[in-house]
Structures are given as C-alpha cells and as structure tokens.
Amino acid sequence: MFTGLVEALGRVENLRGGRLVVSSGLQEVKLGDSVAVNGVCLTVVKLEGGLLEFDLSEETLQRSNLRFLKPGDLLNLERALKVSDRLGGHLLQGHVDFTAPITHLSQRGGHWSLTVKILGGYEPYFVEKGSVGIDGISLTINRVEGQLLHINIIPHTYQNTNLKVRKPGDMVNVEVDIIGKYVINYLQRFRGSPLQGMLESFYNISP
C-alpha cells in the first residue's frame, strides 16, 4: 500500500524487453521491495549503485503510461507504506485503473490548475472533494464535470513531482479511490440486496 506522497523523483535510464532501469536517490531500498513508480506498484529486482531495476509485465505496460517512457523522463517514486507511518495522503494500491490525457495545466497565481479527462463509464467513481491518484500523487478533486476532473495543485506538489514537466496531451496513470471502487462495484453486482438502500443513502449515490 502507498499514500500518494511522492518521496523522490527518478529518471529513466533504460526501458528494454520489459526491464525498466531508473536512477534514483531513494534511501533504504532493498532487493524485493515494492516501489510505486508513477503510481504503479513494482518490485525491485536489481540494485546497482543508484540504479533500481524493475520487471514490467504485459498487463502493466498495457494498463499504464510506463509504455510511453523514454530515457530522461522523470518518474514519481514512493516506497511502500509502513504500518507505523502517518497516512498523509490516501490509501493507494499501486494498481492503475486506466490512463487519461491532461487537457489543461496552467498556473493561477501561486498554484496550478490541472484538468484530466477520464474514461467514459468511470464517472461514478469520482466525487467533488474526493481523492484520486494521478501518476501516484494523492490529489483532491475540486469538481467533476462529466468526464473532466478539475484539480488544484499546490506549489510544493508541483515542484516535487513530475507535474512540473507535464503538458496538455500527456497521458497520466489514474487510480480511483479504493473505498469508492468497492462500494460502487458492490452496488452494481448486488442490486436489490438488503444493504443496497442503506449504502446508497449513506454515500448518496446510485449504481
């Protein structure tokens, strides 16, 4: 599990044959550790100096934006959550649901305005002031307009993640909030169950 609080930026050194090599300043990483790379949970399979190596499955490449990587690209990195750690963001599994294009990214005063267009059919999973994982960053949704998520980015987040090199048209990894995912999937699968009315009332949603 992860929190969506990026610990360090890595840089792509190589991506070949499903093996991703990343230069990183992450500390206390050992062989076999789980690391969120742009929000994708990957296992460290080799350590050499400041280089981390990961194997990417076909599912990972198809589901995430890691398939678009090229040498020099910046990556958001986060080590797995310890049980004793503070949960500063929100719970993320590192399981990307889909990729989505950035449609708008601009500075407004000292902050930045980000808009992402989500896949059709996923609209029920996003709510105003809810959480979303974008490239492994825990972010709060300002508002939802159809398939568009409008998000405010504070200066610290912008400067310390790969958002600082993003531009409209770039594809980002999206992970929906795990609580909403389970509630909505339950309602869709078990319509008419005794708990449906109670859950719909509590969350103020319908399947």
Specify the helix fraction band. 10-25%
Order of helices and strands: EEEEEHEEEEEEHEHH
Shape, please?
Answer: globular
Oligomer: single chain
Work out the strand percent.
Answer: 35-45%
Annotated CATH architecture of the largest domain: Beta Barrel
Strand order of the largest sheet: 1-2-5-4-3-6
For the terminal residues, how far apart are their CA atoms? 27 Å
Number of helices: 4
Largest sheet entry: 6 strands, antiparallel, barrel
What class would the helix/strand composition place it in?
alpha+beta
**Rounded Rg:** 18 Å
Unreliable stretches (pLDDT < 50, length at least 5) are none
Please state the average pLDDT score. 90
Overall number of strands: 12
Domain module tally: 2
Name of the CATH first level of the largest domain: Mainly Beta
CATH topology of the largest domain: Elongation Factor Tu (Ef-tu), domain 3
What secondary-structure arrangement, pairings included, does this model have?
Blueprint: E1 8-16, E2 19-23, E3 34-37, E4 40-48, E5 51-55, H1 58-63, E6 74-79, E7 98-108, E8 111-117, E9 131-134, E10 137-145, E11 148-153, H2 155-159, E12 171-176, H3 178-189, H4 194-203
Antiparallel strand pairs: 1-2, 1-6, 2-5, 3-4, 3-6, 4-5, 7-8, 7-12, 8-11, 9-10, 9-12, 10-11
Task: Write a brief structural summary.
The chain contains 4 helices and 12 strands.
